[in-house]
Amino acid sequence: MSDFKNKVVYQVYPKSFQDSDGDGVGDLRGIINRLDYLKELGIDYLWLTPVFSSPQKDNGYDISDYCKIEPKFGTMQDLEELIAEGEKRGIGLMLDMVFNHTSTSHEWFQRALKGEKKYQDYYIFKEGEPDRIPTNWESKFGGPAWEYVPALHKWYLHLFDVTQADLNWENPEVREELKNVIRFWKEKGIKGFRFDVVNLISKPEVFEDDLEGDGRRFYSDGPRVHEYLKELVRDTGIEDMVTVGEMSSTSLRDCIRYSAPKEKELSMCFSFHHLKIDYKDGNKWELMEPDRRALKDLFEKWQLQMQENHGWNALFWCNHDQPRIVSRLGNEGRYWKESAKMLATCIHLMRGTPYVYQGEELGMTNPHYQKVSQYRDVESLNYYEILLREGKSEEEALKILAARSRDNSRTPMQWSGEKNAGFTEGSPWIEVPDNYDRINVERERADEDSILSYYKKLIALRKRSRVVSEGSIAFLESENEKVLAYRRDYGEESIVVLNNLVADEIEIGTDRAWEGYQKIVGNYADSDIKKDVIKLKPYESIVLER
Ligand code: TEU
User: Own/partner pairs for 280-289, CB < 8 Å, 24+ apart?
Assistant: First the structure.
């Protein structure tokens, strides 16, 4: 496995990063123009969400050709230039492989629709009557997971949008096709891959109704998933590349297997349990205050078990599917800056590889849209209708979207205080939040105390400190749900990390774990550190080193 422990990955959502041609949609050329910014930040890998040919029903996660570039984003030459220009700056490109499904516009699906048996076997088609749906499973974007094709007299499975048909991994020809996609991109000089919902690829032998849930228990970490991953990695020779699997509703046991080096599957996994701590009864569409006790317990459990079993965590708060973390667990008002830095500290110094999602390093917030017409995401638009049908008022439904919509993170990158935050000369495909005059790269770059400057510090610390990249982890203050505290050790080197998760002042004893340590990083200039007690200010983070 390659050495990724001291690396940091930056995620770009191309549609919203930088527009170079004034059509209001970000593009590859825009990213090339911003590479110096990423180099300055100190990141090692750039993960691009899908830029392949796609009708864009799900912003590129509906792929119609895995080896072509969507013209909205640019050309193959642009991508090659991005690879080469990245390389010059020590930044490797990671592409997003959406292998659980293709767009129904993909040639394979189109040929299946025309009756070609070979291509029908590429997908999960079930013979049947229009009034007898094969199972009661639900799509992750709302509604049934099956769609009927009258001309074929068959249903097909789509765990996501109706235009995203699930591939049949049981079919060895499908697996070969997908391996060829990896080979194609590897040849171009791609340095790593992110695999979209890759723990959903193996479906059960028998398709049956789920009497307890929406069907996910039958296909999450499915029966042959480990076998398929091993085969894919082995046959494409990507064991030494950085690979991360997105694992939907996964188990800790499976994540250990996906990421333990001896298994030769992936470098690391994204899991989402820590981002469901404000879902009421596990339901994303029911609001609840964040349960910090649960958050702490999850971090402790996953960090310690992964450590014990040689698994490796991807560390993250934000991505293109999650609301902005400062709006969610931090404070958008008085403690905006402190809380954004504190949240960064929590993640960056644990055991694993940190991911920064575009704009997170600025403390970008949710946009607080007021009208349904401001939303673009297929999931948000579907759920808005579902919530109304369930009897919620428009006002309630909008409140839920404002907290939960994936569009919260998809607003344009805030580069400057100029028109459209410097994202586009044209009219942006999705509205820019109002606060761009205050929260933007130009301002934060010039400010040593900014959130951006703080991210640079954390990234630089990982580069110089083996204890951050390789050290063991042990948790402190386990009983205190307002504090996330841990210690990392590597040989003689050691750091203690203390994070106040709330706006209260908190005193901690922590068995005086900081004796002989000195503060090296923090989000307040002065800290109240005494021999027996540390007083943490609202959202204060202190990193101490021995
Ligand atoms: O997301 C997988 C996924 O299930 C979620 O993050 C999903 O958006 C959320 O749980 C719904 O509440 C991946 C991609 O990251 C996402 O953008 C795609 O839409 C999805 O797969 C389908 O490819």
Answer: 284/404, 285/383, 285/386, 285/387, 285/400, 285/404, 286/400, 287/399, 287/400, 287/403, 287/404
Same domain, 204 and 340: yes
Residues for the chain: how many in total?
A: 546
* Residue-by-residue DSSP string for 261-279: GGG-S-SEEE--GGG-TTE
Of 343, 377, 410, the residue that ends a domain is 410
Question: Do residues 54 and 132 both lie within one domain?
Answer: no
How far apart CA 53 and CA 61 sit, in angstroms, is 10
Q: Indicate if 196 belongs to the active site.
A: yes
Q: What is the dihedral of CA 246, 248, 252, 254, to 10 degrees?
A: -70
Atom 18, ligand 1: residue with shortest CA distance? 61
Beta bridge partners, 529, equal 534
Indicate whether 52 and 201 sit together in one domain. Answer: yes
Do 86 and 119 fall within a single domain?
no
Distance CA 153, CA 525 (A): 69
Strands (E), 212-325: 242-246, 268-270, 279-280, 283-287, 314-315
If one counts every other C-beta atom within 10 angstroms of the C-beta of residue 373, the result is: 8
Q: Please tell me the residue having the least CA distance from ligand 1 atom 11.
A: 140
**Pocket (CB within 6 angstroms of ligand 1):** 58, 61, 98, 140, 160, 196-197, 246, 248, 284, 320-321, 379, 406
**Which of the residues 70, 246, 361, 477 is marked catalytic?**
246
- Report the separation in Å between the CA atom of 408 and the middle of ligand 1, taken as the mean of its atom positions: 14
- Are residues 364 and 377 located together in one domain of the fold? no
Cα(160) to ligand 1 centroid in Å equals: 8
Mean pLDDT, residues 33-60: 98
Ligand 1 center to 535 CA (angstroms): 40
Which member of 44, 58, 196, 477 is catalytic? 196
pTM as predicted? 0.98
Same domain, 383 and 532: no
For ligand 1, atom 6: residue with the closest CA: 321
User: Is 75 part of any domain?
Assistant: yes
> How confident is residue 2, by pLDDT bands cut at 50, 70 and 90?
low
Is the distance from CB of 46 to CB of 38 less than 8 angstroms? yes
Q: For residue 463, is it within any domain? A: no
Q: Is the pLDDT of residue 1 over 60?
A: no
The pair of structure tokens assigned to 27 is: 């593009």
pLDDT digits (tens, 9 = 90+) for 374-404: 999 999 999 999 999 999 999 999 999 999 9
Residue 240 shares a structural domain with residue 356: yes
Domain count for the chain: 4
- Of the candidates 404, 329, 403, 322, which has an alpha carbon nearest to the alpha carbon of residue 355? 322
Residue nearest to atom 17 of ligand 1 (CA): 321
Q: Say whether 127 is catalytic.
A: no
Residue 145 in 3-state DSSP? Answer: coil
Task: Locate 414 and state its tokens.
Answer: 């805030």
**512: confidence class by pLDDT, cuts 50, 70, 90:** confident
pLDDT digits (tens, 9 = 90+) for 90-136: 999 999 999 999 999 999 999 999 999 999 999 999 999 999 999 99
